[in-house]
Design brief:
By secondary structure, this protein is α+β, with helices and mostly antiparallel strands. About 35% of the residues lie in helices and about 20% in strands. Strand 5 (about 325-330) and strand 6 form a beta hairpin.
């Protein structure tokens, strides 16, 4: 179908009116959300609702393809859809002025409903940003489409009518920009307050310091992952479109539920006043594909979780305790379920307050996060934790279990080739093949490398720091000209060798062996 220039000229002002109305809706909503709470903004609320309702396979696909940029891609996608919807409603308003405005109000109701039904909703007030934005946008669309109709398009309208429309459109754009900028400035005050709270924290020395890392634990091989992952490089996989900004001064942790004889709420200062443990622990995300990047090792400082639970009167199931599941709740509404037995079996499960010698970064859970060595993050590593409830697996399904992920998820034994990279072109001769292997809470016993269909050859292992950290490895390969496939496998201390059977991340973590293809010559 061919659209002539006259049609474009006639409809362009209406399309622009719809686009500007959508822009005004977002700007006003951002301003109002600064007074309510940033998480109540329509883009965040609708994006969060989309994440909650998306199939697990789609979420996993997004993490696999976009990594930590998955939330940025989602927000961009929402903005594109809103822009196109605004244009469509503007064109509708050209013929049915009230119909276009009604469409905007309907979108406001959708945004408001998404906000008040989120797990972290603050109540009916969370609907206000979307509703206020929709009302402002509907009023603007009504006014602009009236002027657009008077202008009768860019070609046929009078110069005066076109000038009035353009002035009104420019004024609307300027006012929306000012409102949005003010909203962002006011909304960022919570982030500034949280950052200032973090900067004021002085972490006490641990009562139980981490053992020194053995000299041979870190290999000097170019391209291998460092033994300790810097905080800036540590993976982040969660559902929070807006990083929660929590002040240590107002934070609290409630411990309650089945078998808790002494329910209690702890402040941040009370946690810091307790004996702290310091440990090097490797964390792994269940969305990590074989050979993937969502694994990292850091030095954590925190309160031993088993001691906190014992003080509350909690006993593990093996000692007659009635609760077999610990449900951790985050300030953003996320829920994670952890076996009580694993938390209290002697491993270094903790409520972490520090990471690599500093207070937790905001993006990694400040003020406090939970971690349990040997379990995937979705059943153990609750960031921004504020509530611990003791219950049973039969009584409650946490967020990811309701989406068909496994209730219990010990980390699978894995090895990864860091160097050479896929499709590298090394020269013939000695080539260092190196990487990391992990089997938290069991430890790595050996790593083997295979070239093409040849025999498995033992790799050299770096010194082991603990069973809860990954272990570097290297293999001197005498490379010959041609294309080759390098494959690695690990065996843990229980005698289990990494399986070659490829399975996806759902429901309890990926399996298979990592391989890279290189061309020597």
């Amino acid at each position: 179908m061919r659209i002539d220039r006259a049609t474009i000229a006639r409809t362009a002002p209406a399309a622009l009116s719809g686009l500007l109305s959508g822009y005004a809706a977002l700007a006003v909503a951002e301003l109002v959300s600064a007074a309510v709470r940033p998480e109540a903004g329509p883009v965040t609320a609708v994006g969060g609702a989309a994440i909650d309702r998306a199939p697990s396979a789609l979420k996993d696909w997004a993490v696999r393809h976009f990594g930590t940029d998955d939330k940025l891609v989602l927000r961009f996608g929402i903005l594109v859809v809103l822009a196109l919807t605004g244009v469509a409603l503007g064109l509708l308003a050209l013929r049915h002025r009230r119909g276009g405005c009604a469409g905007i109000l309907l979108l406001g109701l959708v945004g408001g409903a998404a906000a008040v039904t989120r797990p972290d909703s603050g109540g009916p007030a969370d609907a206000l940003p979307s509703l206020a934005g929709a009302l402002a946008a509907a009023a603007l669309l009504y006014a602009l489409t009236g002027r657009a109709a008077a202008a009768r398009g860019i070609v046929s309208g009078t110069a005066a009518s076109r000038r009035r429309f353009l002035l009104a459109a420019g004024a609307a754009a300027a006012a929306s920009t000012a409102a949005g900028a003010l909203g962002r400035r006011l909304g960022s005050s919570r982030v500034r307050d949280a950052a200032a709270s973090r900067a004021a924290v002085r972490l006490p020395a641990p009562a139980s310091p981490a053992p020194a890392v053995p000299r041979g634990a870190s290999l000097r091989v170019p391209g291998i992952s460092p033994f300790t992952t810097p905080g800036a490089d540590f993976y982040r996989v969660d559902t929070a479109l807006v990083v929660p900004a929590v002040s240590a001064d107002t934070w609290g942790l409630r411990v309650h539920g089945k078998g808790v004889g002494r329910p209690r709420t702890y402040s941040y200062a009370e946690l810091l006043g307790r004996p702290l443990i310091e440990r090097d622990i490797t964390l792994t995300c269940v969305s990590n594909e074989v050979g993937g990047p969502y694994v990292g090792n850091a030095r954590w400082l925190g309160v031993r979780l088993a001691h906190l639970l014992a003080e509350a009167g909690v006993r593990p199931p093996s000692k007659g305790g009635p609760a077999d599941q610990l449900v951790a709740r985050s300030v953003d509404g996320m829920t994670l379920g952890t076996p009580v037995e694993a938390v209290m079996d002697g491993r270094d499960a903790m409520l972490a307050v520090g990471m690599n010698g500093e207070p937790l970064p905001l993006a990694h859970g400040f003020p406090v996060r939970m971690l349990v060595p040997g379990l995937y993050g979705y059943v153990s590593a609750c960031k921004w934790i504020e509530d611990i409830e003791l219950t049973t697996f039969a009584a409650y399904d946490p967020y990811w279990v309701r989406r068909k992920w496994a209730r219990e998820a010990p980390v699978k034994t894995q090895a990864r080739i860091d160097t050479p990279r896929p499709f590298a072109r090394p020269a013939p001769g000695t080539v260092m093949v190196a990487g990391v292997a992990w089997a938290q809470h069991r430890g790595i016993d050996r790593v083997e490398v295979r070239v093409d269909d040849g025999p498995w050859e033992p790799a050299d292992l770096a010194a082991e720091h603990s069973a809860d950290t990954w272990r570097q490895w290297s293999y001197r390969w005498q490379a010959v000209t041609g294309g080759h496939t390098l494959t690695v496998r690990a065996t843990d201390r229980s005698g289990t060798t990494q399986t070659e059977e490829r399975r996806p991340t759902i429901p309890d973590g990926a399996s298979g062996r990592h391989s890279v293809v290189v061309s020597v010559g």
